[in-house]
Amino acid sequence: MTVQKRSITLKYKLLIFLASLFFLSPCFAEVNKKELDCLSEIVYFEGRGESQAGKEMIVAVVINRTQTKGFPSSICGNLYKPHQFSFARDTSRQIKNLNEYKSCRELALNRRTFLYKYPKNMLYFKRKELVTKWSKKKKLYKIEGNHSFHLM
Fold it and tell me: Between residues 5 and 93, which one has the greater pLDDT?
């Protein structure tokens, strides 16, 4: 094998290795239908009427939590963790706008295209008018629409 061919082979192997690290990251992992349903519901019920960026940030918070010690490692675990999402306690909740829900589900499916834009330590959000004990202790990252997003 010539030096040039060996160099190309090594570059190819390195490229494959780096790509595998990137795509095997938990934020790029596939989620099952139940997890996708939970993420879609979170975006729908928490982000209705928000901008695309606001909805993306909600997804990013949930995905970041699944990768952070102290939070459940599943999307549904985060949804149903006590005192996290008020809509989760409402057993009578219904999806009333099917088109908006489909849009939220599509966003959840395509999370790979935008997660890199947001900090990994963005773990909290709330309606901006709510005053909470925790929000005073967390650094404000950004206000987007009706929500404020905070860093750990």
Answer: 93
Whole-number pLDDT of residue 100: 93
The predicted structure's pLDDT at residue 8: 57
Over residues 49-63, the pLDDT tens digits come to 899 999 999 999 999
Alpha-carbon distance 87 to 99, whole Å? 19
State the burial class of residue 33 (Cβ atoms within 10 Å of its Cβ: 0-12, 13-18, 19+): exposed
CA 11 to chain centre: 33
Q: Where are the beta strands (DSSP E) in the chain?
A: 122-127, 139-144, 147-151
Tokens 């094998």 belong to which residue?
A: 1
Question: Residue 74: how many CB atoms within 10 A of its CB?
Answer: 16
Burial of residue 17 (number of CB atoms within 10 Å: 0-12, 13-18, 19+)? exposed
Q: Rounded to an integer, what distance in angstroms lies between the CA atom of residue 128 and that of residue 119? A: 19
Instruction: For residue 88, give Cα distances in angstroms to 41, 73, 108, 122.
Output: 9, 18, 18, 21
Other C-beta atoms closer than 10 Å to the C-beta of 26 total 10
Question: How many Cα atoms within 13 Å fall on the side-chain side of residue 3?
Answer: 0
